[in-house]
Design brief:
Elements: E1 4-10, E2 13-21, E3 26-28, E4 31-32, H1 33-36, H2 40-52, E5 59-66, H3 70-88, H4 90-100
Parallel strand pairs: 3-5
Antiparallel strand pairs: 1-2, 2-5, 3-4
Helix pairs in contact: 2-3, 3-4
């Protein structure tokens, strides 16, 4: 099996995911998963597609990620891995990933700050007199 490529996005984070057959190693920006994401919750998010499809330890994953914060990056990686697994074997993995909601791009973005206001929605206090 050759290398499979997929893209995952979340907020400002963009993850390029390369999956190939292997021992289950996950490398993010040339660093192991445990070094890149210190929190267990973030490592859990990254590993969710492998858990749902029961393919943990079957694929080596190399990831390049730019932009965003740690949570957005973890969710972008999850989407990228899910898309790559679908490219490998659509019939086997797609139903489980679709049911778990891992193939849907979360399009929510931060609303921009408006001029003359303290933030996107907040207004300065109005004084009638």
């Amino acid at each position: 099996m050759e290398q499979t490529h997929a893209l995952g996005r979340r907020k400002a984070a963009v993850a390029r995911v390369y999956i190939s057959a292997g021992a289950g190693n996950i490398t993010i920006n040339d660093r192991p998963l445990e070094d890149y994401f210190k929190e267990d919750a973030l490592r859990y998010i990254v590993n969710q597609p492998f858990t749902v499809t029961e393919t943990a330890g079957k694929f080596d994953t190399k990831i390049t990620i730019v932009g965003g914060g740690v949570k957005g990056q973890a969710e972008a990686i999850r989407l990228g891995i899910s898309r790559a697994l679908c490219e490998i074997d659509k019939e086997a993995y797609r139903p489980a990933l679709k049911a778990a909601g891992f193939l849907t791009r979360d399009a929510r973005e931060v609303e921009r700050k408006k001029p003359g206001q303290p933030s996107a929605r907040a207004r300065f206090q109005f004084s009638k007199r």
